[in-house]
Amino acid sequence: MHKIKLGKMELDSPVIPASGVFGYGDELKGLIDYKKIGAIVTKTLTIKERKGNPQPRIWELENGLLNTIGLQNIGVERFCEEKLPVIKKLKKPVIVSIGGETDDEILLCLEYISKKDIEAIELNLSCPNIAGRNLISENPEATYNIIKQARKITRSFLIAKLSPNVTDVGETGSAAEEAGTDALCAFNTFKGLTFDWKNHKVILGGVSGDAIFPLSCRLVHQLYQNVSIPIIGIGGIHSPETGLLMILCGATIIGIGTSLMINPDLPGEILNEIKKYKKEKNIKKWDEIVGRKARFF
Amino acid sequence: MGNEIEHKIVRIKEKKIYKEKFCFLTTENRFLSNPLPGQFIHIRIESVFLRRPFSIAEFSSKTMSIFFQLKGKGTSSLSQKNRGENIDVIGPVGNSFPYERFKENILVVAGGIGIAPMIFLSSELLKTKKKFSFFHGAQNKNSLLNFFLPEGISPVIISTDDGSKGKKGKITDILEDYLKKEKVDVIFASGPYFMLKKTAEISTRFNIPCYVSMENRMFCGTGVCQGCVIETKDGFQKVCTDGPVFDAEQIRWKDIPYA
Q: Domains in chain B, ordered, with CATH?
């Protein structure tokens, strides 16, 4: 497999875990072949520890999952003391995901983490499970503003994680690019609703899993036509073919979330599919495969 | 946690369907480390989206078994798998009953299909020559599952809600009477939520340590997603890897929306 360049990072694989399904990075060593993934991606960390939402937090759908976890995490400080030294030993690029309820919280967290020895920072501007606010990345101006401020704080490789719940992903993506993000993570979960029939209660949360693949892949395809920075394509990848397709539609690398927990061997299966495709099409460089099937209108 | 979680494809060696609603499924064991009583495996079932957790009911160097009730789409299609077919498992997951530190006067309480991990626990207790009594309760004589227990347990005390076999009433009522008369050092319980809650209340009243095997809807089953947390005195704890066995005193029962 080619080494894939993402900023200064050299990834062994174009497949990475999506934030949230990989814990703090080292918990799944017995389960997942770390050689098959390009980087470690942590769950989203906040400046202070977060308890997360009340249970139940998991709602199974016909072909997907609705979660209401609410960014439960130990806080960035404890992460740096307890977890970071352990995952640094895994000799993989480390992408730390950070978030918060306000711009200030996110930027404080960024200030803290950017002083540490990590390869990239994902700004989670799109968690649908934080109460009482619109998501930053639902608004191009708010997206632009926070990235502009983030850029003043750090020169680290910044990845803006976007929401799919917008009229035009090209607009938010371009705003993020213009403000100076190095890459885009597309996307977070879709806002969704299910019903608790036992307690007759509406449940709002983020939808992931197989069902969202055609939606997110189309949005990645659209985003690719609007930006020139790398896109990390995420959303419902669940098979070797869907993994490859996301790349052909414009993702420089791809992230797997929900399906990684259902099939821990998926990264390896996707790598084989890519290898086969490259051989068939006689592809020599990674650039030749990214966006190969993106149609420009 | 005593062992690392692994991902294996295992072949079904034997399947027994009992009374059309219970299934005892034995597969080859390919785990590198030995499962402990109380641990579970997380099984991929094609007909449903998420994996499903099943307590390990029996284990030997070559085989491992689960025992479950046919309740919905997932359990129903798993029960239709046949000898020779493969299943995709993650495991062994979770902690175990802390039985090693007790020698005698152990009480095992199993309600309904909650007996599954207690079959494994009983085997270990017998193997290590611990003295224990086994309580098993079910709705009626057709739902009793005590004959899946290993031989040599004494006594086995049975109750049914309708009195069709054993003592009439809930197993927890019988437990209460028993504790008034007998010395008990520890209670290990597995079963429906209300049985566990009641057992916890009784054990507190009698000042006896009690460990319960909890359930929750689960996604990753590996400790990373935080989906299966329950409220405890130490904050949210994950049923999958902090549990499934918890000190009953630690659980904030009123904050668990199982009812």
A: 6-93 (2.40.30.10), 99-198 (3.40.50.80), 214-259 (2.10.240.10)
